[in-house]
Amino acid sequence: MSASAPTRRRFGLGRWLLPTYVTVAFVLLLIPIAYTFVFSFNDANRSNISWNGFTFRNWLTVCDQPDVCVAFGNSIVVGLTATVIATILGTMIAIAVVRYRFRARSAITLLLFLPMATPEVVMGAGLAAQFLTAGVPKGLGTIIIAHAMFCLSFVVVTVRARVLSLDPALEEAGRDLYGSPNQVFWRVTFPLLLPGIVAAALLSFSLSFDDFIITYFTSGSTQTFPIFIYVAAQRGLPPQANVIASSVFLLAIAAVFIYQAIAWRRAKKSA
Fold it and tell me: CA 167 to CA 155: how far, in whole Å?
C-alpha cells in the first residue's frame, strides 16, 4: 500500500481575519491610553501637545494645577455619592420587581429601561429644565441627583438579572431552619446577591465618573474632571491631567489583578 499523502493545511479566511481584527481593535483602544501615560511624563507647563523631555515633576506636583485636583475631587464625590444612592434604591427596586406582584409592574419595568435608551443630551436638557423650573441652583447637588437618576436603571437591570438567577430553595431552607425574614435575607439572600450588587456599583461609578453631557447641563459653575478636560483642551491640557488619568487607569488595572488573585486563591483552597 502506498503511503497516504500528507494532509494539506487549508487556508481559512476566518481563521486569520478574527485574530487580526481583535489585534487591530485592541491596539486602537490602547493608543490613547498609551499617549496619555507617556505624556504624563512630558516636561511641559500649560500645553501638553508636543514632547519636550522626560520628567517626574508632573507626578510629584500634580496639585500645582489646583483646578485639576478640585475637578477630580468633585468627580470622586459625585461618583461615590451617586453610586451609593443608586445602588441602594436600585437593589430594592430590582427585588420588588422580581419578587412581588403589584399593579403596573410591567409598565414600571419598561420605564426603568427608558433612561438607558434615551440620548444623554435629551436627558440632560430635561433635567436642566426641571431644575430651572423648580428654582434649584445648579451645583454639586444637582449633579449628584442627575447621576443617581440615570445610574439607577443600570443598577436595576444588573441586580434584577442576579435576583432572577437565585434558587428559591435556598431561602426556603433558611425559613425551614426557623430563620426570621431578616436573618434569611442577610445570611442567605444578600450574600447571593452581593456579586451582582458589587458589579452594579462598579458600573454606576464608572458611568458617573466618565459622564460629560448630563453633567454639563446640570453642573452650573461646578467642574468635574470630564468638564475640566473639555474646557482645558481648548487652550492646552496641562500634564497634571494626564497624571490623574493615568493613575485612574493604573488603579483599575490593579483592582482587576487583585480580584483575580483573590479568586485564584479561593479556587485553590476549594480544590
Answer: 21
Cell, residue 174: 433558611
Residue 50 has pLDDT above 90, yes or no: no
C-alpha of 199 from chain center = 9
Output the nine-digit C-alpha cell for 127: 433635567
175 close to 184: Cβ distance less than 8 angstroms = yes
Instruction: Report DSSP state, residue 8.
Output: P
Average pLDDT over residues 54-66: 82
How far is 112 from 116, CA to CA, in rounded Å? 8
Would you say 129 and 213 are in contact if contact means Cβ atoms under 8 Å apart?
no
Cα–Cα distance for residue pair 158/90, rounded to 1 Å: 9
For 207, how many CA atoms within 13 A lie in the half-sphere containing its CB? 24
203 vs 151: CA distance, rounded Å: 8
Q: What is the mean pLDDT of the chain?
A: 85
Q: Classify residue 184 by its DSSP letter.
A: H
Radius of gyration of the chain from its Cα atoms, rounded to whole angstroms: 25
Cell digits for 159? 441586580
Helix (H, G, I), strand (E, B) or coil at 42: strand
pLDDT score, position 1? 46
In order of 163, 171, 175, 201, 263, the CA distances from 191 in angstroms are 12, 12, 16, 15, 16
Cα–Cα distance for residue pair 222/89, rounded to 1 Å: 26
Q: Exposed, middle or buried by CB within 10 Å (0-12, 13-18, 19+), for 77? A: middle
